[in-house]
């Protein structure tokens, strides 16, 4: 089951990165780091949930004797050795084993949340980088149009015989426009470098639909903290209970031992076989003979009570209370953060609508300026000014569009959601 859930998660999260503008994120180091952490957590859960374990142990000893009479030493073995093979079964998780499995499952869940957190952060960075590049491109066009307008204004000032002061101002305006153009080109180069490894600048950025609005990541993590504290509390309570240990041992020969044992802490049956050399000698009874044990049943009950165990229980109870309070604080913080993000989204939507209207107005103003130019009622300088205003309106619209995408992706990051695959 853990394998299938992990594979399902990767299949669910991968489409948004498969192709299009977000394709470079497939090889981003942070994404690979998150994938490695997810794989490690999944393998750790598999290790904890393994149904059996096989172990082998060997022993060797070299023996020395002092005998009376000395000839007795010749009949004693010089070495001793043994080999033990053990098989531990886990028919169902119980006690400490169940705690280990549950902790591993929670660790896997944390890794899944970390994977989503990493990818949503990269997703937002990619949108920001793509938007800055688009804005930088338009910024270069606006600056170039400003240079063209300043040059035309200087030429017009010279033709009409403007005063030296007006000419100096026109020349300074041209120089300032050229400086802005160079600055815009540097900003474009910087935007291209910042987008490397994050987003394909040649591909359009996918549309960002409203998020589904699942549980926030912060709440998911806080709930995991409560569950971890509950497991620790249960383990502290079990530490105060007695432990019953049962073993059945069979001795088919002096060299062989079969053992079956079970502990109340884990309910894991353990079967072991031991081969030893030299063989166990029969127990001699003076003037009566000897005997050899062929089977043995052992039962033991142990109970440990100490102030430390009770202190550990109190600490676990306090930790659980702290985790529950942290969850309540996370719920309050998440509600405030969600409302703040939604308010920012509504503001971005209103700004986008206004910039669309401004762009439409700039388009109408340019069309009117061109008509007036045809009628001789407008100068080429006025048309250039209208073109510059339209470019500025387009830049503002691009800024508003990407601001809306970023506000949406901040909500995606808040919920831990990824973009669906909407572009080829």
Question: Could you give a short description of this structure?
Answer:
With 424 residues, the protein is an alpha+beta fold. It is 61% helix and 14% strand.
Uncertain stretches:
1-18
Characterize the overall form: elongated
Question: What is the strand arrangement across the widest sheet?
Answer: 1-2-5-4-3-8
Assign a percent range to the helix content: 55-70%
Structural class: alpha+beta
Amino- and carboxy-terminal Cα gap: 32 Å
Radius of gyration: 39 Å
Sheet-strand content, in percent, reads: 5-15%
Mean pLDDT: 91
Characterize the structure shown.
With 424 residues, this protein is an alpha+beta fold. 61% of the residues lie in helices and 14% in strands. The chain has eight helices and eight strands. The protein has helices at 2-13, 15-18, 29-48, 96-159, 164-195, 217-238, 307-374, 380-415, and strands at 52-62, 79-89, 243-250, 256-263, 270-277, 283-285, 289-291, 295-302. Strands 1-2-5-4-3-8 form a six-stranded antiparallel beta sheet, with no helix packed on it. Strands 6-7 form a two-stranded antiparallel sheet. β3 (243-250) and β4 (256-263) form a beta hairpin. The longest helix is centred in the last third of the chain and has 68 residues, at 307-374. It starts with a helix and ends in a 9-residue tail after the last helix. The model is unreliable at 1-18 (pLDDT under 50).
